[in-house]
Prior knowledge:
- It is built from 15 helices and 13 strands.
- By secondary structure, it is of the alpha/beta class.
- It has two domains: 4-93 and 192-364, 3-Layer(aba) Sandwich (Rossmann fold); 95-186, 3-Layer(aba) Sandwich (Rossmann fold).
- The strands form three sheets. It has a seven-stranded mixed beta sheet with strand order 1-4-5-13-10-11-12, sandwiched between helices. The chain has a four-stranded parallel beta sheet with strand order 8-7-6-9, sandwiched between helices. Strands 2-3 form a two-stranded antiparallel sheet.
- The longest helix is centred in the middle third of the chain and has 17 residues, at 193-209.
- It binds pyridoxal-5'-phosphate.
Amino acid sequence: xxxxxxxxxxxxxxxxxxxxxxxxxxxxxxxxxxxxxxxxxxxxxxxxxxxxxxxxxxxxxxxxxxxxxxxxxxxxxxxxxxxxxxxxxxxxxxxxxxxxxxxxxxxxxxxxxxxxxxxxxxxxxxxxxxxxxxxxxxxxxxxxxxxxxxxxxxxxxxxxxxxxxxxxxxxxxxxxxxxxxxxxxxxxxxxxxxxxxxxxxxxxxxxxxxxxxxxxxxxxxxxxxxxxxxxxxxxxxxxxxxxxxxxxxxxxxxxxxxxxxxxxxxxxxxxxxxxxxxxxxxxxxxxxxxxxxxxxxxxxxxxxxxxxxxxxxxxxxxxxxxxxxxxxxxxxxxxxxxxxxxxxxxxxxxxxxxxxxxxxxxxxx
Length: 365
Ligand SMILES: Cc1ncc(COP(=O)(O)O)c(C=O)c1O
């Protein structure tokens, strides 16, 4: 049955207290290697404690999003799929989790000066909303080519829009000027401990709602979402597979994993406008060590998966949010040896903010 809400048993957690463990990392598409991982703050920007703290901090301000299932999509994929539906989150994307965690971590003196970021997408709107909830100013530097609906969201939530050119250089220099003038706190969209910890709370919820999940597929861009989720999920269950889904036209994570070092691409080209950023120096070590593999899919596959979400799940997802389903249905996933071991798959439907005209045009192609 399409669009069914799942009700699952209570959270089964091995041990919240245990944060270090020895694990074997066996990348699905890459070279096998043994790694001794201590999932601790000393090694990574966040850990299970900071994620649990974030959970408590943001709980009053966010939705616990539902996990949807569809027998039709189970049949199509040959797996049992659990859609963690963050498109129903406040602001229409998971980003409010990190933004709220960061904004509500500030002391009163810091908060009084407001917050600033440069973003063309969901982080911008989420930060405006989080700042609004705390009653402080949000200065949002937005490039002129940002999607219309995402700019409207920023304005709807009371963010002060400052326009920049589309280049990263212009975004950064405009944000630096705002910082200097206001003394506000800069909150990066993903390369920040507070943001990573907030996004990690999705994994805590998902594993409570669907404890049978053995694999989690997460969209990747700057890597804040998957870093938080991998830290949380693997601290609870080291055997869980965490797989990134990335557009072929912005595949810096796949290239970085293959090269063993962070790669920045000269340009990107994908319909998934939320997935065009590059890994940061805080997210890369987590992706390098804890993400088991990266599946890349082209825009045609992403659009097809977006359509399936509308037609079968009945949810208004944006292409960046539908990429996890595209990955599950892709040939590269099906042809891989590890495929047979992935039976209960959690997929993060990460957001639902899209200009309908753009979506409609993509469906017609
Ligand atoms: C809808 C959506 N999904 C996924 C992502 C990727 O998140 P991250 O940059 O933390 O990897 C973004 C980032 O903007 C997004 O907007």
